[in-house]
Amino acid sequence: MEITVNNAKLILKIGDITEEDTEAVVNAANSTLMGGGGVDGAIHRKGGPAILEECKKIRENEYPDGLPTGEAVITTGGNLKTKYVIHTVGPICGGQFTDRHRELLYRAYYNSLKKAKEKGIKTVAFPSISTGAYGCPVDEAAKTSLKAVIDFLKNENGLKEIRFVLFTPSIYDQYAKALKELVNEA
Ligand code: ADP
Fold this sequence. Notes:
Blueprint: E1 2-5, E2 8-14, E3 24-29, H1 38-47, H2 49-61, E4 72-76, E5 84-89, H3 99-118, E6 123-126, H4 138-155, E7 161-166, H5 169-185
Parallel strand pairs: 2-7, 3-5, 3-6, 6-7
Antiparallel strand pairs: 1-2, 4-5
Helix pairs in contact: 3-4, 4-5
Bound molecules: adenosine-5'-diphosphate.
The site of adenosine-5'-diphosphate has 21 residues, from helix 1.
């Protein structure tokens, strides 16, 4: 599924984020920035040690206590097809979805796109942040994630294409449903 927002494309697809050729891909990191499971593990495995080296420097220089939830930082893409990885931390929901979870997830997407824009990046791929190990309900996460990206594209010019790269048909279907609802509300 694909829509246009303020001259930028917003695309939903099924796939593996580590294979994307966008200028930046977003990592569903944890606050340590030292790697983990899911998307995070796959990005570091395929991207190689250069990504972790930069993450270590970011921890030392900017975030000795870890990257706060909702914030984003940028590193090289290492051996991935993408040039950059934007690392952000989504909320830990554990099956619930409160207003605070919604706000933090929104900020994770919005701040990732801010980082992209600062670097002059025009194409970005996102996974479904916080819907794996962090346990946010996919329907709620989809609405919030899509809203954050659409709001950013409406408020800021410069980005050309945002892809949501969803790992399973079931997650894709829930994002497609949420996107249709958002388009109909607008
Ligand atoms: P979090 O800790 O933020 O919940 P996870 O990486 O555990 O992050 O999961 C986030 C989402 O990414 C889940 O929906 C999971 O199915 C999906 N996922 C896992 N591996 C990949 C991948 N290689 N590409 C795209 N999505 C992935």
